[in-house]
Amino acid sequence: MVAKFTQVFPESGVDDDASPHPWMMVPRQAYNLALLVEPQGLRLSFDSSFVEVHELPDAEAVNRFGAAVLGKIWRGFQCAPEMVARGTAVMRESLASCLAASAAARALLVAVVPRRTGSCQVRAVDGQGALRAALDVSVKEERRYRLAFRFVDWGLDPAEWNTQDREGPVRTSRNVSELHFLLARVNTIFSRQVNVTFSQASVSKVGIQRHLTGSLMMSPHPMPRNAHEHHLLPHRDRTAGVTVFFVHEVGSLYHESKGSDLDAIYVHRHGILVMEDEVGAREDRILAHELGHFLQSRHGVLEGHQHVTGAPNNGHLMFDNSSLLSGARIAKEMANRMNP
């Protein structure tokens, strides 16, 4: 078996399929982990001005790493002492799980701790200095954005009821109590793979006196002026990067005419994201997919360095049909677009 670096767990900030070598995103304020498969007789070489690399072959090494690094990381977040202790304990538990995974794979657990931002390479070389495996590393500063949330209750004019597939007002079934958990799951996707974090801005309920079906059209042309400006723009939070509108249903004439449905849509030029109640995939992935557009990422799946629309999704977050998302994987090229 050939020596290689690989991810410990899926969606953890290591792209096994990156070319020419596997790639790791390391948050400037934390660290990341990888496995070195077939490590026997190899030593690690790296630029110590960019990163520290810790080999963690056993529980004793994990404990030493925890004592030297984890508390320092949490203190860097300027948390209260009890939060430092709790966070350090959680990280130790996570490291123990990673160590178990490395033992199952007969691999060496490797921790990469940043010293400054930039790119470098961790190299596994043999006794003659020949390269046997390489891991490209990008240390990225954290980017933070604020999300506002609007819970929409729309009503129809009586004259419109006969043209709609429902009667009376319709409101979203989502509620404010869901936001904390949803935002936490979205942040798990982005913080581990891109070092982007979203925080909550304003939250409110709004009434819109028009059904949105047919107004949010997916086409090369701008959306009709009255669809977004008249109905949505007055309710957006101009202090937030994105205002998320939760609605009962998002209709799209373009998609319905092709026999499919639209779970959510992001209108880039106005920072508006509309998401319906019944989505075809996990709601955190749907929301993260649309936020990926906010972060300048396009649809498609990457094959090597090629952007391929319609390729098998393989768990990619930016797969071109968000209702079929089977994972939230962010490849190297996508990550570098989201957080250059």
How much beta, percentage-wise? 25-35%
* Secondary-structure element string: EEEEEEHHEEEEEHEHEHEEHEEH
Number of strands: 17
Dominant shape: elongated
Biggest pleated sheet: 6 strands, mixed
Low-confidence regions? 157-168, 213-226, 252-260, 302-311
Task: Explain the overall architecture.
The protein has 340 residues and is α+β, with helices and mostly antiparallel strands. The strands form four sheets. Strands 10, 11, 12, 13, 14 and 15 form a six-stranded mixed beta sheet that branches. Strand 2 and strand 3 form a beta hairpin. The protein is elongated and about 75 Å long. The two termini are 35 Å apart. About 13% of the residues have low confidence.
Characteristics of this structure?
alpha+beta, 17 strands, five-stranded mixed sheet, elongated, 7 helices, six-stranded mixed sheet, 340 residues
